[in-house]
Amino acid sequence: MENLPKGAFFSAHPKEDHFTTDKGQGKTIFNNGLVIGPPMTLRLLRATEKEGVTNSRTLPMSALSFVHDFALTERYGVIFLNPYTVSYQDLLQGLVGTKALGMLYKWRPEDKTRIVVFDKETLEVIRDFRAPAMTFDHVINGYDLDEDRIRVQLLLHPSDSILDIEKGRHDMYQSTWTQTTLPTFHNIDITLGSSGSPPRVDTYEVSPLLSELPQINPRYTGARARWGYVNALKPLSDGALPGKLNAIGKIDLETGEFTVRGFGDHKYADEPIFVPKANAQAEDDGYLLTYVYDTTTHKSEIHILRADNIMAESEAVISLSHHVPYSFHGCFVKTDEV
Question: What are phi and psi of 111, to 5 degrees?
Answer without folding.
Answer: -80, -15
